[in-house]
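[Automated response] Your request has been received and processed.

Submitted sequence:
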Amino acid sequence: MSPAQCRRLLLIVAHYRPLSRTVANSILQRKKELSTTHLIFFTSNSTQIFLEEKIRSRYGVTGDELPDFLILTAGQQIWMPDSFFQNEKQAYKHMIDKPNVMIRVHKDGTILYSVRISLVLSCPMHLQFYPMDVQQCFIDLASYAYTTKDIEYIWKPHEPVQLKAGLSSSLPSFQLNNVSTTYCTSTTNTGSYSCLRTVLQLRRQFSYYLLQLYIPSCMLVIVSWVSFWIDRTAVPARVTLGVTTLLTMTTQSSGMNAKLPPVAYIKAIDVWIGACLTFIFGALLEFAWVTYIANRSSQGRSTPRGPPLFKDPLLIRFLFRIFDARTRSSSEDDGVA
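Generated structure:
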């Protein structure tokens, strides 16, 4: 930086009031415009953002000998907006090996503030269609103390959100379908606050659940149906097969649900697992019913139809002789008469 540039910068800093909010121009009067850009890197657990804010200041200078911008190393030299992320749960700035902050002061009065932040954000999910669900996660940026009368956040006209190359397919469990921007200005008891919102549309990867849940559960149902071709008299084999498949399906269901928070509504995976358990339990009930009917039929065929008294041949021969003797004596009595 030349001595003339240093004198110009010192002149600007000398007349600058870092504790007061400067006015952009006469049309905006008391309002300051912030043009914001996000550069996003994120995983399923955290999000890393390069936040860029352009602040329009009235302390612009002109001159051919000045560079396009000057870089400041200390943020205390200029006024900074009190931006914060509304749905942030945990955040920290990167400080290795120096604070990852960049401040550029352009000669037209525009100030570019860029900072690297890692965030853990809250993203409420609706799991009715799990694991074939599509979720929407938000990144909300707003001012904590200044209302819309003082600060208004505006998205950069072109490419306000920039994504790292390959980010859409780098997540282990989700596919990033779309990224859009909107506004989330809210009104509270203390005033109306300008807010910017980044909408991330995430589709859950289905291939993992296809290999770990759907194909194994279909195989368990088919194995339980194999008992239909086993002889009904092979009771140990059929009972072991039915009970084993039922317990395996129950264990698989518990393992999948252990990865999810408990919810009060039915999920798509619950319907699938319930149908598989019904088919497996139905095969076990079918075997029990067939065994019961077969036992009743065999007992019916082995039971004699008449009293056991008339099934003894000696007794039948004895009774026949008595009946024949009585018949003869009756005939002789009729002849004498």
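Summary generated for your ticket: The CA atoms of residues 47 and 244 lie 44 Å apart. The longest strand covers residues 110-121.
If you did not submit this request, please reply to this message.
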